[in-house]
């Protein structure tokens, strides 16, 4: 029958909602979900950036507050000039305090916004244009913060038939391995990654954080009393076109942060026209990651390829997807290796073994996939 495979971000305790034989999920487009979990957004002019680090990329400046940071501020911040309890502001309280808040300098008002839930940020932002000018960047931070949640996280595609204690080299420290074993023993489970996968949260690669905010905006009285142009501006702020954060006119690369190596999009795309920012039709960065991060004790892979794919050379490594321009800014003092040709050759070998010598034509005749941001 062949073993099943699952794509895991171990330290986040999250698993992608894709499961199947490797000979299925590697060729059916399932790996595309990895792209938006790793692609770092590139905000256009007008987006207000924070100076905080992304929570999942300790060695990589992302430039935005993480959702964990936002929540931590909600629960732990104790600014002395905030006396009211947390929770949604009622209209009467907001109107009574409007004059007092309107007199605050922008810097102090910014601290007030820092201490509020995102729902209250939106409510307070609708009080006036002055408030909106301060609150808009907090809304943008909230929308950007959960993007690329697996960037900088150790990723492994785990086979069901993995033995106890069989881990990719260097993925776990000795303490992490002991903690994982203790955790699994407390659950009365075998101490292997396959058991751990079953305890993880399933996630998708295309979740938008804006849905609730848009609903709140449309239910507010202020929204319906505004001009059409103002309503359009607010809608665009709380429900932005996320595709604008992943520009098509810049070259994108997949980075292996663990070994400081990168793969260029044009090297693995079947044709230049198949490249759409970080997304590539048919075979892209997701397929590269999946083909190199598999890990199982059992070599059964349910495909024709005869390589050692079940012991992936990138299993347990950390990745992100970014523009070549941003990479050059980030890596100005570091030595990185371009492994594009090596990876392209390996991809060609895998796909040729599955579809024959005319595999490029066979793949290109498929229906183009759709991408969701």
From TrEMBL:
Protein name according to UniProt: Uncharacterized protein
